[in-house]
């Protein structure tokens, strides 16, 4: 790892371009993505962010040392990727006269990975691919794709991962997978996604807990689990519903609130069929500024994902002081440490039933102790103020001259 202070001095003279295809832009100016952009802008001379706008509208943010371009996408693939690549390329080239790119940071997508080699050839820019998820596993889980499409996407993923000058992997498990796919270990920096974590305020958290539990009509004896993420089978929503249905008679106090968009209607219908209308609440999309209220109201955080990198939502929940119930996939074991910060389980209904039962029987004081350990672990690993300098030195330092 390069020396953080020396790297900081060099980065402060360079221009960074961030390409972000997977932007949740309904609340972009206030969400964790925006705070991450601002964190980068504090350490580079100039930062240009080019992100996708799923609303179909173009908008921007212009702050000191940070310029953000949100560009509309075509309604269908592959036009969306072609359109975004073309617009990003035009913005980078037009800006190069004043701010030639020294680094490209390509976030969580292969849709624009071709621009990394392009910028390197044209301006000598170093390029970093952020691997927040196991693309290889996710491709296998895309059962609606044809075998040919899965084969081609796997080959494309392997191609760009091997070409990347640097890869920021969210977990050691993902880094190990990349090495097995032919990526030299020396090019991989293992870092979870950094977060702008608020300072703990126990009094505010208690007020929010009371208010939101009242809104959700939760009695004091009811135990609330919260999930945050896309509502689909990859996140294991179907597994959780089946497990809750199996426990409904034995553990009637258990409740689940899911925050996120996706296949909400489909799984709401499934919950109804299982008789879980009073047990499960799908809140849909929730602005990031309101998520901390749900975390304060909850007693634990659960994800039964079939595949993960290292979920940012779990880090946020841990930092808020919640014990974690996570499937043993990807980098989840780096967060959920059995007996200390939470529980790990196989993504199967019987395993989830067992863990949910144990969680519901755990006392409030035991859950609070686990939550405190989870918060300490998360803040040491993902807090921008704590881990930021070492993160920048490890990710960008090896690409600096000399």
Protein topology:
Layout: H1 4-11, E1 15-20, H2 32-43, E2 46-53, E3 59-63, E4 66-72, H3 79-95, E5 103-107, H4 115-123, E6 126-131, H5 135-141, H6 147-163, E7 166-169, H7 172-180, E8 188-190, H8 202-215, E9 223-228, H9 237-247, E10 254-259, H10 264-273, E11 280-284, H11 288-297, E12 300-303, H12 312-319, E13 324-327, E14 342-345, H13 349-361, H14 364-382, H15 384-396
Parallel strand pairs: 1-2, 1-5, 2-4, 5-6, 6-7, 7-8, 9-10, 9-12, 10-11, 12-13, 13-14
Antiparallel strand pairs: 3-4
What are the defining features of this structure?
Rossmann fold, 402 residues, 6-stranded parallel sheet, 8-stranded mixed sheet, globular, alpha/beta, 18% strand
If you had to describe this structure to a student in words, what would you say it looks like?
The chain is α/β, with parallel strands linked by helices. It folds into 2 domains: 4-196 and 383-399, Rossmann fold; 202-381, Glycogen Phosphorylase B (Rossmann fold, 3-Layer(aba) Sandwich). 44% of the residues lie in helices and 18% in strands. The chain is built from 15 helices and 14 strands. The strands form 2 sheets. An 8-stranded mixed beta sheet has the order 3-4-2-1-5-6-7-8, with helices on both faces. It has a 6-stranded parallel beta sheet with strand order 11-10-9-12-13-14, with helices on both faces. Strand 1 (15-20), helix 2 (32-43) and strand 2 (46-53) form a beta-alpha-beta unit. Helix 1 crosses helix 15, helix 8 (202-215) packs across helix 11 (288-297) and helix 14 packs across helix 15. The longest helix has 19 residues, at 364-382. The relative contact order is 0.12. The model is unreliable at 24-30 (pLDDT under 50).
